[in-house]
Amino acid sequence: MDQRPQGTHASLSTRNQRVRYDITSLDLFITVAEERNLTHAARRRHLAVSAISKRISELEAQVGSSLLIRNARGVDLTPAGQSLLFYARQVKQTLEQLDHELGDYATGVKGHVRIHAITSALSQFLPDDVSRFVALYPQIKFDIEERVGSAVIRAVADGRADLGIIAAQTPAQGLETLPYRDDELTLVVPGGHPLAARESVRFKQVLAHEFVGPHLESSMHTLLTDEAQKLGRALKLRIRISSFDCMCRMVSTGLGLAVLPRSVINQYLRSHRLKAVTLDEPWARRSLLLVCKKYDTASPTLKALIEHLSHRHDTRAFSDRER
């Protein structure tokens, strides 16, 4: 007869046995690991130290290995404890997401999606795409955050975002990707600049000028720096700033040139007295990608959104190519 405590359990299989971990015990273990002190953990969870200690002992018996090293100042984690902490946090996060989404269904809201996207996607395409999706599914909630490409990848990889949007130049780090949209990068110059009279220009012809550019981690910065290096030149960055609006304002005051998506700058050309000059380079047309951990195991809500955003593409084209 099973004498283990009744309640919610998570089951893990080993080659020789099936171990059932109590969720409460895992949660208490996380607290102990964070506090590095049983007394502090007990105070934080409003429990007796003996109750915390009993839970840890039970976990150690299940694992078959010590999880903590007791010392004068508190406790440290053993290698087994470090491993358990990693997976316990994953289990806790998954259960919290499950509870949150099921709670949304209970209140009539049919899901919640967290999106992290680069500025180009947010400025050009995503607002209208999300608006059309909400018209079809009005009870879905969104959290949308603007991030540089590398930060988008990190957020999707560690579960802080369900879906990311990046430029194709950003390494996907093994995550699955699908084509989203294409945009055209254009040189932006003040109206009175010598290059303003040109209809098009090669990138090597503008590298003698100073630039107003995006931050170092952005995919745009990586692209421009790489292309300059291929020409044996360095990109002369005078100012780095993330806002496209601010970049246009600074270009208009003569602080430098900028390379920005054409559809973004169209709204600023007249008001800021700017001129858009076509960049005669194959890389000036770039692809934006949707990125997620694994499409096949995504929630129905997330799959519906991905299918909506990639309406021109087959979701079977999702790949885990590392770019």
UniProtKB/TrEMBL annotation:
SUPFAM superfamilies named in the record: Periplasmic binding protein-like II, Winged helix' DNA-binding domain
HTH lysR-type domain location: 21-78
InterPro entries linked to this entry: HTH-type_LysR_regulators, LysR_HTH_N, LysR_subst-bd, WH-like_DNA-bd_sf, WH_DNA-bd_sf
GO cellular component: cytosol
MF (Gene Ontology): DNA binding; DNA-binding transcription factor activity
Pfam family, one: LysR_substrate
Record keywords: DNA-binding, Transcription, Transcription regulation
PROSITE patterns in the cross-refs: HTH_LYSR
Domain of life: Bacteria
Record-stated family: Belongs to the LysR transcriptional regulatory family.
The protein, known as: Transcriptional regulator
Originating organism: Pseudomonas chlororaphis
Taxonomic lineage from the root: Bacteria, Pseudomonadati, Pseudomonadota, Gammaproteobacteria, Pseudomonadales
